[in-house]
């Protein structure tokens, strides 16, 4: 077994005893939260990363978490919040509600008994990092904490030591080079454009076709339709220079009983051009190329052959083929063919990498303990190696 356990001290009968407890891994993104125990092959829990409150203005609102927050009911919603937006922790009270619910209700665990590893995006602001550590120690009562770079975690899941990492989730996309296990300085490229923006583009297309999806629950329907009905053009030319038949409309039945909606081939490809279309200066293939150009020139040929993609948005039909074609055009002439590494489970590759890291015996000394937090406060996060 690859599992290694954190050794926690506790008082029993006046003497200090040691318990070995499994660590909990949290990947808290803009739209989804994944949680589970270190050493497992997949997260035990995947849930919408939203908090809802409903009730009349004169009553204390009922707090709803995850799937419950997206469901409809006889009492009107007062509002929905996302504790993480564009990859950054912005609402700490709601983040506590979300994480506590995931651990206590989802994993049936006590956060005070398990070390907590939290994945964080590249270029995470200093204030957000410190607030996350404060929340984990003070609000959830964790005995030990570690914040890990999401790109590094996805690389662990891929089994590579050097790669160009491209992640595209719901709120943010980023690319950076990791060489022999270390992030290459100044290689990180980030853009606030990702799957959630594609979902909004899907809603725009559907609105033009007479189907309006405005409520939070309807937006979730648009996200589902994005995966089921919409796809990425395999080549830019397929979208920029469509065939005559691409304007022909096919009818698709909506899953919520709304009836049929007519979509052309071009309609179904249009939203994804937001991420890969050549009219977008921050397109994903450009992020990869710019990140790679910051690496040592002698390593670039190998890196072009090791482009690892992760995040739910990279699961889209046609995404890997289109990105491969686009990067092949951007690669210097005479190089070996561009190779994309697209794991079947890349939707939760960051969580898998966290599970691997937190279960290594060599990692256990890297946890930040409660004693260290009490000595240094939230700034202890900057001492994490």
Query: Can you tell me the CATH architecture of the largest domain?
Result: 2-Layer Sandwich
N- and C-termini, Cα separation: 25 Å
What's the helical proportion of residues? 25-40%
Total DSSP helices: 14
Domain module count? 3
Q: Proportion of β residues? A: 15-25%
CATH superfamily of the largest domain: ATPase, nucleotide binding domain
The count of strands amounts to 21
Radius of gyration: 22 Å
Give the class from helix and strand content and strand pairing. Answer: alpha+beta
Strand order, largest beta sheet:
5-4-3-11-12-21
The parts where pLDDT drops under 50 for at least 5 residues are 9-18
Largest sheet: 6 strands, mixed
CATH class division of the largest domain: Alpha Beta
What is the typical, i.e. mean, pLDDT?
A: 88
How is the secondary structure organized here?
Elements: E1 6-12, E2 15-21, E3 24-28, E4 32-37, E5 45-48, E6 51-54, E7 62-65, H1 67-70, E8 77-81, E9 84-85, E10 88-89, H2 92-106, E11 116-120, H3 126-139, E12 144-149, H4 150-158, E13 163-168, E14 173-179, E15 182-183, E16 189-191, H5 195-208, H6 216-228, H7 236-240, E17 249-253, E18 260-264, H8 265-269, H9 273-276, H10 284-293, H11 300-304, E19 307-310, H12 319-330, E20 340-341, H13 349-358, E21 368-369, H14 370-376
Parallel strand pairs: 3-11, 11-12, 13-19, 19-20
Antiparallel strand pairs: 1-2, 3-4, 4-5, 6-7, 6-8, 9-10, 12-21, 13-14, 14-15, 14-16, 17-18
Helix pairs in contact: 4-13, 5-6, 10-12
């Amino acid at each position: 077994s690859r599992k290694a356990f954190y050794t926690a001290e506790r008082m029993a009968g006046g003497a200090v005893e040691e318990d070995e407890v499994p660590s909990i891994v949290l990947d808290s993104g803009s739209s989804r939260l994944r949680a589970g125990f270190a050493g497992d092959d997949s997260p035990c829990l995947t849930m919408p990363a939203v908090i809802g409150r409903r009730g009349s203005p004169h009553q204390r609102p009922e707090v709803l978490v995850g799937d419950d927050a997206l469901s409809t009911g006889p009492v009107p919603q007062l509002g929905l919040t996302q504790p993480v937006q564009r990859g950054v922790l912005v609402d700490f009270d709601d983040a506590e509600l979300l994480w506590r619910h995931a651990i206590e209700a989802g994993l049936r665990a006590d956060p005070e008994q398990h070390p907590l590893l939290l994945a964080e995006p590249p270029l995470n602001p200093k204030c957000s990092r410190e607030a996350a550590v404060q929340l984990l120690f003070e609000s959830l009562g964790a005995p030990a904490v570690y914040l890990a770079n999401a790109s590094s975690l996805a690389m662990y899941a891929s089994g590579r030591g050097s790669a160009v990492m491209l992640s595209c989730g719901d709120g943010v996309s980023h690319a950076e080079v990791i060489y022999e296990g270390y992030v290459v300085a100044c290689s990180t490229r980030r853009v606030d454009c990702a799957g959630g923006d594609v979902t909004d583009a899907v809603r725009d297309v559907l609105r033009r076709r007479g189907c309006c999806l405005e409520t939070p629950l309807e937006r979730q329907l648009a996200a589902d339709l994005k995966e089921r009905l919409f796809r990425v053009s395999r080549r830019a030319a397929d979208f920029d220079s469509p065939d005559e038949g691409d304007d022909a409309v096919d009818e698709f039945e909506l899953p919520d009983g709304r009836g049929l909606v007519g979509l052309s081939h071009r309609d179904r490809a249009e939203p994804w051009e937001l991420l890969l279309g050549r009219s977008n200066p921050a397109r994903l293939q450009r992020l990869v190329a710019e990140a790679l150009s910051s690496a040592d020139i002698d390593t670039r040929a190998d890196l072009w052959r090791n482009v690892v993609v992760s995040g739910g948005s990279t699961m889209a039909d046609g995404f890997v083929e289109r990105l491969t074609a686009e990067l092949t055009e951007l690669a210097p002439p005479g190089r070996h063919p561009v190779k994309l590494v697209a794991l079947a489970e890349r939707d939760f590759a960051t969580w898998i990498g966290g599970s691997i890291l937190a279960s290594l015996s060599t990692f256990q000394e890297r946890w930040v303990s409660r004693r260290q937090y009490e000595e240094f406060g939230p700034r202890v996060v900057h001492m994490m190696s």
